[in-house]
Amino acid sequence: MSGNETTPAANFIRQRITEDIDQNKNNGKVMTRFPPEPNGYLHIGHAKSIFLNFGLADEFNGLCNLRFDDTNPAKEDTAYTSSIQEDVKWLGFDWEDRLHYTSNYFCKLYDFAVELIKKGKAYVCDLNADEIRKYRGTLTEPGQDSPFRDRSIDENLDLFKRMKDGEFADGTRLLRAKIDMTSPNLTLRDPALYRIKADTHHRTGDTWRIYPMYDFAHCLSDSIEGITHSLCTLEFENNRPLYDWILDQLEVDCHPQQIEFARLNLTRTALSKRKLIQLVENNYVDGWDDPRMPTIAGLRRKGYSPGAIRNFCERIGVAKRDSEVEMALLEFCVREDLNKTAPRVLGVLKPLKLVIENYPEHQDGEDELDAIINPEQPELGYRKVPFSRELYIEQDDFMEDPPKKYFRLSPGREVRLRFAYFVTCTGFEKDDDGNVTEVRCTYDPETRGGSAPDKRKVKGTIHWVSAKHALNAQVRLFDHLLKEDDSEDDFLNQINPDSLTVLEDCKLEPGLANARPGTTYQFERMGYFCLDSKDSSPESPVFNRTVTLRDAWVKKQTPKQGQKQKQGKKQKQRKKQQQK
Ligand code: ATP
Ligand code: MG
Q: In whole angstroms, what is the distance from residue 157 CA to residue 115 CA?
């Protein structure tokens, strides 16, 4: 399964829809919806559902609605409805004029509830929460009928109207479906359909004092919208009989088919709004769009592209069983995408001054080298990078006393400065604490562009930035949000205290002064980075590391491939030696 394949990977939902079309069910039409609750920002798990719902509709010439499932006024907010729309658009989907709110259906839903009461299928129950729980029974014991179950239809109609009119306090009464208190499926033991809640709703204000429960509102909203296939996550499997029961009791034109699929779980992060909101509210992160968050807004700020997220969603596929996907797979998809698209630049994260003793001062700043923009896209050509007598190199690229196999700079050693010249280390300076503060070298003017006319080789190539031209920037490096994979333990105890590292005074290629959020660059040898959309300014630019270069996923998943590459290298070396 790759994003490039033209035939979409088979999955059981697609098969099901194909069968329905073959049998001309719903007149061969496909209508889906993405139904977020506006109680938080969307995360990568929602992306899976978005790609599935919008993707399948697209594939079968159908339509997909965006519907806010806004039945819980206490937790919802218009800030969330805006962010959700922005995120769905950014992922590349368009609901056109089909933006819906469950709250738009509150009148219709109320009428449906009245219809159920009139049919003797729903009743007002005065038990309190504790009593309801007691009467409900357990998985092994049947429940007991509520003493209010046999109220007359007229009494129920009257009480339900008074609930609506705000006559009763929160939690004192419920409207319940009259199904079966002995059902082995607990969701069918007279589930609640409406509750009393005096909260102000972000769209309907104080108009309503009762709000429909999810199970009641969801199936009917689907039906009102003519949804043919109502896709939801596995935890709703037990609710499907209730979904069907409600629609079967009422006069509705459309009875959607609920189909469940496994929700996405990712290692080393949380994918539940309940948990993510704790991180935001307790300031563990800098808002919902903190680049460490698995939210769409966070991933965007970190430099992920919609294409990378799409590839990831295609790769993980759709299954009927819950599983956990490795974060490394998501990162793999991001690298795969960025490797093709990201312009290359030079950036030094932990700078160390390198002085070229024999570099003519009069030439300082005159020399501009050609550096390829992206070897994966040679048609983009070259950019100019200024060179001068004083450069910055990475602290890690110099060692006073290197171990074997260290091929970077050390006293007496010659290395290549990427795109520039060969330099040989002639000395260095240290401060009182023994830290190297400056390295000195000489360059070979004959090696301009990075190769020697006498074909002599160097083993190491290091990156650099001209000191007087460098763009000073803050760079933020991120690690996983959680120390371990998410578990049921106290969530806040699992937080990784080292998930953010801030590096000040990094030295970047001057062209990056024109960087814009939304473009991710490869800092050669250091990873992929993008300008921060929130905290950056032209005077103090801030870059986020999108992802490292190292690919843990490939190493882990295809050891054979790794071996092959190594053998290939060795074979090449042997051949070379034979040629010599
Ligand atoms: P959360 O547990 O994060 O609050 P939710 O299911 O309550 O998630 P909703 O806003 O109700 O969030 O979700 C909208 C849609 O996205 C639903 O159809 C839901 O099934 C789907 N969805 C949510 N989380 C995931 C996930 N991790 N993987 C796949 N689909 C998901
Ligand atoms: Mg939900």
A: 10
pLDDT of residue 9: 61
User: How far is the C-alpha of 425 from the C-alpha of 77, rounded, in Å?
Assistant: 61
CA distances from 54 to 31, 50, 261, 386 (A): 9, 6, 15, 47
Residue count (the chain): 580
Question: Of 338, 335, 340, 346, which is closest to residue 371 (Cα–Cα)?
Answer: 346
Q: If you measure from the C-alpha of residue 359 to the centroid of ligand 2, how many angstroms do you get, rounded to a whole number?
A: 65
Nearest atom (ligand 1) to Cα of 236: 20
Structure tokens at 122: 């729903």
Say yes or no: CB of residue 42 within 6 Å of ligand 1: no
What's the rounded Cα separation, in Å, for the pair 519 and 313? 22
218 lines ligand 1 (CB under 6 A): no
CA distances to 215, 307, 338, 475 from 509, rounded to whole Å, are 56, 27, 19, 13
Pocket lining: 273 vs ligand 1, CB cutoff 6 Å: yes
Sheet with 500-508, edge to edge strand ranges = 344-345, 520-523, 527-531, 542-547, 471-478, 500-508, 347-348
Ligand 2 centroid – CA 220 distance (Å): 16
* Contact by Cβ (8 Å): 258, 49: no
298 neighbors 288 (Cβ within 8 angstroms) = yes
Mean of the pLDDT values across residues 123-136? 97
Identify whether the C-beta of residue 509 lies closer than 8 Å to the C-beta of residue 471. yes
Q: How far apart are the first and last CA of the chain?
A: 44
Ordered structural domains, the chain, with CATH: 12-261 (3.40.50.620), 273-343+473-556 (2.40.240.10), 347-463 (2.40.240.10)
The DSSP result for 498-550, as a single string, is TSEEEEEEEEE-GGGGG--TT-EEEETTTEEEEE-TTT--SSS-EEEEEE-S-
Q: How far is CA 432 from CA 400, 429, 436, 437, 441, in A?
A: 16, 10, 10, 10, 22
- Report the predicted TM-score, pTM, of the whole model to 2 decimal places: 0.92
**What's the rounded Cα separation, in Å, for the pair 479 and 486?**
15
- Token pair of 249, please? 């009791």
Q: Could you tell me if 285 and 297 are in contact, meaning their C-beta atoms sit under 8 angstroms apart?
A: no
For 436-468, what is each residue's pLDDT tens digit?
A: 999 999 999 999 999 999 999 999 999 999 999
Centroid of ligand 2 to alpha carbon of 442 (angstroms): 64
